[in-house]
Amino acid sequence: MSETGADAFTALGGSVRSALSERGFTTPTEPQRKAIPPLAAGDDALVVAPTGTGKTETAMLPVFDALADEDRFGIGALYVTPLRALNRDMRERLDWWGDALDLEIDVRHGDTTDYQRQQQADDPPDVLVTTPETLQAMLTGSKLRTALEDVAHVVVDEVHELAAAKRGAQLTVGLERLREVSGPVQRIGLSATVGDPEAVGRFLTGDRGCRIVEVDVGSRLDVSVVRPTVTDADERLASELVTDPEVASHVRRIDELIAAHDSVLVFVNTRQTAEALGSRFKELGTNLGVHHGSLAKETRIDVEDRFKEGDLDALLCTSSMELGIDVGHVDHVVQYGSPRQVARLLQRVGRAGHRRDLLSSGTVVTTHPDDTLEALAITRQALDGEVEPAEIHDGSLDTVANQVPGIVMDVGEIRAMEAYEIVTRAYPFRDLTTEEFREVVRELAENRVLWVDEENDRLEKRRGTWQYFYQNLSMIPDEATYDVEDVASGDQIGTLDEQFVVNFANPGEVFIQRGEMWRITNVDEDEEVVTVSPIEDPAGEVPSWVGQEIPVPQAVAREVGELRRVAGRQLQEGAAADAVARDLTRRYEGDPATVESGLEQLRDHEAPIPDDETIVVEMHGREVVVNACLGHQVNETLGRLLSSLVGQRAGATVAMEVDPYRIELELPSGVSGGDVIDVLETTDPEHVRHIIELSLKNADALKFKLAQVAAKFGTLKRWRGSGSGRFGRDRLLAALEDTPIYDEAVREVFHEDLAVEATQTVLSAIQSGSIAVETVGDRTPIGLGGRSSGRELLSPEHADASVIQTVRERIQNDRVLLFCLHCRDWRRKQQVGRVRDQPDCPDCGSTRIAALNPWAEEVISAVRAEDKDEDQEKMTERAYRSASLVQSHGKQAVIALAARGVGPHNAARIINKLREDEDEFYRDILQQEREYARTQSFW
């Protein structure tokens, strides 16, 4: 063993060192070198390092060393992971060490069988791998509490992920409940790079002191930003992939990167993009699998294993692969589109490399100017170690409501102040007041979750306690998930969230999942199953997955503003764009052509440039765009403020959309852009929070959150996220306004979506003049260059040229039955594309030709019948209306009538609509076909 290895590994006992030699671990990785000695000494510590640098062994080797040859009945160590998939990985990784050291390793989570649970209670393993939720349940079992008395070490994996979620706040109280059973235990956290490791350390240990062991990631990164340029080959590829040339250039560049490396992770920001991009790669024949959280578990495991074994060259994935799921060696990471956050880029690109002296290499492929400048700023900040802090959920009252019944379940009954002391030992609840705690407890008592004996200051179990506790083990909101099943095979394809099903999933609709097209055949709401059949038609829609856009932080948006300011001034002073771009490459990791593409909007921007020192307000009729480089949360807060106050002046609603660089408003009559500027320049910054809270009462965001929080208090037994619950949201708001439930819902909306203090600072800067406000009387290239929060590059606002081309080709290839209503003799089945511009009868010369479905022989029989019944009369009438349209509009009428579910009435509406081009004609046909698919079950 080398001298370097001895420095760290000599802190371990002989049996572990022997196992290390047998395993081939001769030299420790950097986190092992730094962390093993203090961990072996029993210190609490947070280890911050990239995935793949041996963090698991860093934590567990000292724990194994402490457990080896130790005589105990119960569980010696808990390994807590946020994902069940990580449980599976950890079990596989730790089993070898368990065999070598004669230690039993086991896993416990929601799918563990009753038999396995009983075995673990009767004969506890030495190390138990589990989830935060399962730990909650373990603490209430009498046998398991005995087993937990021997716990001396707790390792929390991916602690950065938990620190920013209510699941993490729940876990911190769970660890304090564990402390009541086992006494003080060593706490070890494993984390990706975060901006405030000290705060995450306090979160982990309850602010009892924590060693921070941090590996510098920025110095180990090799990241470049690329925006592909469209070539002639991309024009040809676009027609093959049924997409536009720009997207084809993205697919082509990513395919080249996959071909140039052995194993590549391709990260995208949404499941929607994963499905849409995956379908393009499937058409191209790229050896790639798709991986995201809505795919069936078996499907995810299959692609993970195939990638790990080298059967797949690449994995196209979302944040599902940010965490440490073991997929073997990765030698390159592609990020499609800006990663939006520095921490996210570090986590994703950090998955590559890790062989000795090998940098983590990655490429960010950008899609438009905002995207490019943003990626350049994020990459620069990542390399310089400027990472966002973890947003810890401080004082979440529904988490308190969730944990107090658990504490009571642990011991049967407890003094209220003793329960309060347990909760407030956890770092997120250090500032919880006794009055807040008592309000939560009273609400639980009113909901029959607990007995409260106020006279004796005691909390006791009641009949509803057990049921509440086990229905609320998780702090993840309770929303229905529908299984997607193939009607032919019965196999599960994946899942869809309830809101998507309610808003979109009607029989006949088409969507992409697992990179393939599916048509919905049935929706069973009772069984929560969507039945689908596979189709080849690429003209479908991509699922609108529930989930917010990843918010771009203010620091990133302001650097984009700085880039605009520096480059914009040079361009306005006459510098050439390519020279400005070359100058910027000295600071930013992009080639000159990519950097120049990020400056596209600036070259044609004659008005003042919105940047880190200037807000530009564009006014164009009722449209007002506030160009502000302030990030998602500040712009959301500022937008709500403007919408509320300007709306009050008009006595009407102001429509609003935001992105990190723009607030787009649609003003009602009675107000103008001048009112928007007046609000910016005169609103007292101290009033921001109060104004926004008042405006939230009319917002769906608060009502939806209120329902979720109410469920965690036991106020609602179950809330259906679609609004189909028995208790309407408006009534819920009125009933709960003066309760801790309402307070928590407001707190959570502010925490997750808004940035009040930063917005107050911006308003103060505007009013002091340190941020200038300029106005222009029309739209500008920058103002028009926004990406709204609901729009995805791969699912355009309109059906898009590629989809329209598919519809056109399909209809042109369909067959139609032409029938002469003059002689009632001639008929012919013909491809629509072969029909003449003005069809006529070759026998009698009449242009009175009906265009019918190719199987519509009964219509011809009805027309020819002497004595017609009611149905025949209707068919005859439709035939004559069809012929009248063909006589007046020729082949255009034949095309419209050949579409699915488009009869003479709707065909006439489509034909008579004024439009600019033929694409609009086919777009209207497609819209009518979708409407027919939605409603055909009613006819």
TrEMBL record:
Domain Helicase ATP-binding: from-to ranges: 36-212
Pfam families documented for this protein: DEAD, DEAD_assoc, Helicase_C, WHD_Lhr
InterPro entries for the chain: ATP-dep_Helicase, DEAD/DEAH_box_helicase_dom, DNA/RNA_helicase_DEAH_CS, Helicase_ATP-bd, Helicase_C-like, Lhr-like, Lhr-like_DEAD/DEAH_assoc, Lhr_WH_dom
UniProt KW keywords: ATP-binding, DNA damage, DNA repair, DNA-binding, Helicase, Hydrolase, Isomerase, Nucleotide-binding
Domain Helicase C-terminal per the UniProt entry, residue ranges: 253-398
Source organism, top-level taxon: Archaea
A single BP term in Gene Ontology: DNA repair
Family statement drawn from the similarity comment of this UniProt entry: Belongs to the Lhr helicase family. Lhr-Core subfamily.
Name recorded for this polypeptide: DEAD/H associated domain protein
Source organism: Halomicrobium mukohataei (strain ATCC 700874 / DSM 12286 / JCM 9738 / NCIMB 13541) (Haloarcula mukohataei)
Taxonomic lineage of the native organism: Archaea, Methanobacteriati, Methanobacteriota, Stenosarchaea group, Halobacteria
